[in-house]
Amino acid sequence: MGRAQRPPCFQCRCRKVRCDRRPGCCNNCERLDFACSFKKNTSILTNRRPSPKETVQNRPERRRGTQACIECRRQKARCSGELPECANCHRRQRSCQYPQANQSNNIADNLVEVRQPQEVPGDTSSATTSDELFESINVYFQHLYPIPSFAFLHEPTIRQQCESGTLDHNLAMSIATTVDLWLPRGQKPSEKINLCIDSVEQGIWNQLDRPCIRQLQCLMLIVHCHIHLGHFSRAYMLAGLAGRAVTALRLNYERPELSFIAQETRRRVLWALTSIDGFFSVGLPEYETIPHAIIYQRLPISEKAFREGIPQSQLTARRSSLSAASAEDGGLLADCIQLSKISKDIMRLTRQLALSEQPLLQLGGLIQEIQNDLLRFQSDVELSVGHQVAALANLEDMARSRWFARILQVTATWHQAHCDLYRLFLPNYQAVAPRIIMDTIEPSMKDHALAKCEEHVQHINHIMQELLHLPKEQILPRYIAVCAYHATRLSLFLAASPDWKVQTDTATAIKNAEISLSVLQKFFSNLPFTDRIIQDMQDLVRLSHDRPGAIYKELCCPSPPFDQGRHRHSHLAVHSLVRQANFVDDGYEESCNDSVN
């Protein structure tokens, strides 16, 4: 009979791996840098079983987790389970965390550390229980998500991650803070909200060189928070950072090798950023964070297809027997984006005309092309969604729809685009094209422009009258305030102009201006974004009452001895967030002071 084989070392026996029983130190312990029991454990040589105390003391260090880490679970990737960090997180330089085994599946106990009440000063939680987090998610997707600039989160994924405890804590904090600002459910201290924002920003700065979709989503929510709080300069700079992340991740290109949901999420993050960008640039390319010229992505699909993860073509075939009016929302998000692109083209044309020093021969063709785009857009929306773009019927009934914000934005923006296009040819109006351009415009074109402006501004005024009957809690897109502002100015100008006769008299125009002002005071009074707009409208209404004859002069284009084209080209609108940020370059003054001292 052969000699009995030496028992394996204690470390290999605990780890249940094959031991080569090499004297002094086995190969496994040498490779893993363990303290091999062959080195000095005489119990192995004498076949004495180690005592319980020795077993606890000599048990090897745990190097493998009992389950996948949070990041690998979120990415649905195979996790090596190693401690202190798995191979995937080490390779991608991510923070590796494992859910604690003794905790339940409750979101507040598992992952979202920002939700846990901490007994330390400066707690950055905007909610302290998982119920509040679930409520924040419900409120976000019910009231904020329908606004195009918020439509970049996948609702089923967010809810699933929240229930399973894998929702990123920065994203959870961003959602809760955004909801607390837009729809406060109680008096949340401003210091606590600011701490939440600072905490998320710090997490973004810590991973500045490692951008990802989740981090970009947090950043865009924080930009929204800064806009809501009136921190326009910080919002603008962070929006520029988001634009860099978009190009770094190449979100402006299609990625057909990715999953259906991943592709659509990338598209929506990109297009949501362009919606935010519109409030900064207002037609000026130097203020754009992500130019449309470098975007090669498709427009977003319908909400039903996105939520269910079904390609648009299959979903359309499945519901082909349904009427257009019964479709949940068709493609209203894509319609909002497409219409914003047309509006941006109109603003670019306005800026370019301001610089013109000679007649633009192709101007008539450009105007007709934009008009055709607007008419084509109208027919496409009415055919696919069944919504009448030219008029809002039963607005109070439509307000019960979850997608009312998009319906409202499509209609108001469509009418405002016509006003922006044709006000260029209203003689003496502040937004009129330069004199060298107007001298080449036929009188029939000026009459046509007058009729179009009067028609569409009346539609906008009608929308404002209907909005005034909605409850104050209704959340409206920010662009509605812009439409109300321009409609007020244009209505007062048309009614006061002595050059032509319009259907609306001065008294009716003043009444419409007061209604638009009431809408802004009702729905936007707590937003610093609209402070200047409301103030300007109040001044116009007051001037109309005090000195009715002065309102025309107030809204007329000044007649300087020279063209102010370049000034008008770079002039920022009153609703531009860059203008309200009031950036000041004081570096030259400081350098001069230093040289003098």
UniProtKB/TrEMBL annotation:
The keyword Transferase does not apply. One of its GO terms (biological process) is DNA-templated transcription. Pfam families: Fungal_trans, Zn_clus. One of its GO terms (cellular component) is nucleus. The keyword Transferase does not apply. This is Zn(2)-C6 fungal-type domain-containing protein. Residues 8-38, 68-98 form the Zn(2)-C6 fungal-type domain. One of its GO terms (molecular function) is DNA binding. Keywords: DNA-binding, Metal-binding, Nucleus, Transcription, Transcription regulation. Its main location: nucleus. It comes from the Eukaryota. It is found in: Nucleus.
